[in-house]
Amino acid sequence: MNQRGLWQLILMAQEGDRKAVDELFYMTYRLAFLVAYSVTNNKAASLDIILECYVSLLSSLSDIDEAMNFSSVLSIRVLERVRILAGTDDFLKIKKSRGAGSLRDVSNLAVYDFDTLPGVESDLPANEILDIFFKLDTGRRLCFFLFFFGGASTDDIAAAFDVSEDDVVSALRSAADETFPLIAEIRGNYTQLRHVNVESLIPWALRNNTSYSPDDNELKSFYATLLEKLVDAGALDTTMTDDDEDELIEIDFKDMGTPPKSGFFKSKLFFSIMVAAAFLLVIGLIFIGMRRVREYNDIRAEIERQTSRVTLKYTTGLFPSESLVFSTEYTHASETEITTATEASQETESAEKNTTTAPKEDYGGLSFTESGGSVTIIGFDNSKKVLRIPGTINGKTVTAIAENAFFNSGVESVVMPDTINSIGAGAFLNCTNLRNISLSSGITRLTENTFRGCSNLTSVTLPKNLNFISTQAFYKCASLSQIVIPSSVTYLGDWAFAGCSSLKSISIPDGVTYVGQSLFYECFSLERCSFSSASKLAALNEWMFFSCSSLKTFAIPSKVTYVPANCFYGCRKLERMTLSGRITSVDANAFTDCTGLVAVTIPGNVRRIDNSAFSGCSKLDRLNLQNGTSYIGSGAFSGCSALKTAVIPSSVTEIGLGAFAGCINLTIQCTPGSYAESYAADNGISTNP
Fold first, then answer.
1. Are 318 and 292 in contact (CB under 8 A)?
2. Alpha carbons 367 and 378: distance in angstroms, whole number
3. Which of 57, 128, 159, 203 is surrounded by the fewest CB atoms within 10 Å?
4. What residue spans define the domains of the chain?
5. Contact assessment for residue 661 and residue 632, using Cβ atoms and an 8 Å cutoff
6. What is the pLDDT of residues 246-266, one digit of tens each?
7. Helix 3-14 and helix 70-86: axis angle, to 10°?
């Protein structure tokens, strides 16, 4: 997965999404392990090192931004940890080589990451390939792994090694010059690898080797320990293991002398003492916290007994960390607010204020503010399950629900009047017990995060005049199986229905002119998304149907002119796709991993088929390009193992590296003397005129 995909996983992991944490780990652990193993030559020690780095990084994901590469940050953090443990920088020394190429020579190498290669059942070639790298000196080996497969920049590597950028470029080039011919020899010994370029065999070897990877039992035990430590650190809520202790492992460093012996402050005894002290401290803090809670409850009970003439406010804060801290405040209202027998006097004083907050018990647990002639709902008693909002309060019209008004409340159903014309952002955010709601007919806009995280919401009635559904409005409403979008809607924001994993079908109104990125991201149950022939939509968006693994059919609206990047990535039940005559390009990864796709119609208007556009479409058996197509990108049809015939017209003037990698039964039909014919000859692909 590219950096964009990693960033989306990070966003989900930041919210505590356990599945995202799983995917993030399994996508990155091999490289992190390899970096540690390159120095330690010890599997157990390497796992011990990357465990600490994973806990540190996954516990502070908020520090990662979109511009950063997770694999790069993790790998360099592993390297820094090894350096500290070793107490030496000897293994970071780079052997300089004269006459090495420029940065351009190494940064332009085309690398395609294959999980598997058709016909290759043995891990033997993968082990042989990595054996070549472990014959390099440690410095160059680490440079190569970090740059090509960790995504680290030469600046980052230079900083980690404390050398110049020119030294790093020199090391990369010399490592490539030394290893690539040897890898090419291995490729020649396996006919199944003939369509895979040398560079792409290296990440494949990283994924499929057994010599330099932990086995399944080691990995299972390691990940269970990692989950437990993430729970302890507050990064996850639940774990899968009951193990409490991890022994430190003695590290036997490769390519260097014996590391200096640790003093008492780095010894196991000192570590054990610190662990025991920390454990006792946590137990003590928990005891103090529980005592504070009991004291708080006693105070609250006493106060409630005395509230017949006193108004009180309570605030309680819980801060998730290694210690629990509870804060309690209660303040007496001013004498003018004290309930007295003279109710008329109190009403006069309240009327003099521009904005007032009514007691919850007066209106079924509601809190609200009054301003002018209107009322805004700002909160709700969390102990109540049914929310009934009246049309008027104190003779004033209820017109709005404030931002985050019911955030995290336990409300199960909502009844609201038609007088309400606006709902603030996050009004029902994380109302996980909310099951059904009917919105006011006066609402024309759903703002950001309105129902985000309402995981049990099964039914929502949208008003007929609604025209705008904003970003993440229904994000992760996992129980929402159907929804009717009114014909008045013109805008569907980014991630609006992402994570609605029970949503089965949806119709997009003709008036919609914008659909956001990742609109139906991971809607795993979505089988049908329909547009009518009168649709005004002129563009789909990136990641729109990412991992909609149940999507069977889809007709692209007639006004759409291109298929954006990653649009149908992972739609594994999508069987057929017809591209309309207006479409001029199919962008990168548009249909990647559509493993059920057996037929695709590509009209002559399609000028470009970009990188990896149909990569991994393993059932696609025939490709018929029309005259007009001029460009087929790198890896465009890589991994299409069932592809037998590809009709490539003479209009094609460029075919990228590995465009048909892994298409072991392919025959190209082309015009004699065309570019396609010369490409086939250069890549060992048979041709028919």
1. no
2. 6
3. 159
4. 1-88+215-255, 94-212, 270-332, 571-689
5. no
6. 343 344 444 433 333 434 444
7. 80
